[in-house]
Amino acid sequence: MAPLPVAFTMYSDDEPDPGKWWKDFGNAELNSMVEKALAANFDIEQAWSTLRQLGASATQASADKYPTLDMTGDYSHTREHDGDARKTTRTENHSIGLSAGYEVDLWGRIQANANSGDLDYLASREDLHTVAMTVAGEVVEHWLEIQTQRKKKRIVQEQIKANKTYLELIELRFRNSISTALDVYQQRQNLAQVTALLPPIESEEQLLMHELALLMGQPVGSIEVSDAELPELGELPGLGLPADLLANRPDIRAAGMNLSSADWLVSAARADRLPSLSLTGTGAYSGTQLATVFNNWALGLAASIVGPIFDGGYREAEVEKARGVVDERLSVYKETVYTAFKEVEDALVQEKWQRKYVDDRNLQLDAARTSLSEAISRYIQGLDDYLPVLSALLSVQELEISMAEEQTNLLLYRVALHRALGGTWADSMEPPVADTPSSDTPTSNEG
After folding, report:
1. Range of the domain at 54
2. Has UniProt tagged this entry with the keyword Metal-binding (predicted)?
């Protein structure tokens, strides 16, 4: 894999903060919503379940490293008649015993399979962390977009009031023969146009609320979101170096573990082509009466070696298949690393130019308001007709709504940056109480 760049295009002297970045927005309700989503989100619950399954599979893969011990028992009862109904022969047989087996791991096949299972388990844990970081980011994004829709609604409501005031003024001037009927019709059209903006905003807010409820593992209509001002955007967080992403991004860590797991499967497939040595032992007690069972005993020990001679190329193909998996996962790892670097750079570029865009749009809005004020003044003095006023009014109102969206986009790019940088805060997540494995449930050792 080609080396990563030594630094990001926008450099920060601060070290990356692996903590819960959404707390920087300073809203207690938002913090609570994220925590509730991390505890109840369905995708996270499914990830926990997958982790438990792979933990059990890892335990099964490691079990072959140890001997097996089984208990056996047998009882038989026969009755024989020799033709005389009064003569009956009864025979009883009792036996109990133990049977043990162990495969000597001559070539490391069993250990390789166990190592692969452990890595699959650890990769699944990193997949869980990736899901958690995605859910946290989506909760914050939905909360910001809900607040934006409410801000847009307040702006539109203020615009409706202003347009009604303008309409009353024009109608008064029309009754005094100062304005024309066309001026009245144009302002009525503008009022209707602004009023028509409300239903889509209301609809979008409700849809966002529904999606937020689902993210939090709650039914639709069961959550409330308080009105809040959009947070101020602070300075860039600590970025660290591109190489830091290898440790801070759980998807990269998972891809690396999947690659290592595939390497161990190659070792297991190669070892499977060599002979295997198995040891077995049996110990049994038997007797015709239960009380005499332990009077007769037998002990058997055996060793067997099995080696492939001809299998039609099956085991060789298994090795080739495992190597193909390694190549595939190596490519996935490279793509994951480069994608992570791209996502950080994308977020940095988007935020940089969005800041400039918001500043320029603010200047445009100030100029539009000045133009509207001048147009109204000239209209009242009778120097112009109403068309310049209408044009300036539409421009101001469109810019006001647009600015609400663009300021939110700036915040969303910051959220995207935090998501791209990853972190280690998800490492402390605990499984749901209901899903905690019981004492008799096998689990894998992370160490």
Report:
1. 21-65+108-272+337-435
2. no
